Amino acid sequence: MSGRKMLAESGSAALKQSHPPEWHADRLSEARGIVADVAHHPDTLVLLACRVICAHSLDPFERVEALGLIRILATSTPNASPSRVGGAS
Length: 89
Prior knowledge:
Elements: H1 3-18, H2 22-36, H3 43-56, H4 60-76
């Protein structure tokens, strides 16, 4: 087995063990609620919610929309980094 595959499998196993099964669904639901009500949340929180959607949503259209919103907000938000989409830093 390659090192990359072993690392990916151990990472996903650790991710599954560190949180209950509903944790990811709850975070994704929370992120969707923030994006749905953009006007009432700070840009930094919306950016974080978009990153969660890009990382955890199974819907490719939803991920593309979140990525587009990241790009829009990154141009208007100081110190925003669109290059850090979809993963932990």
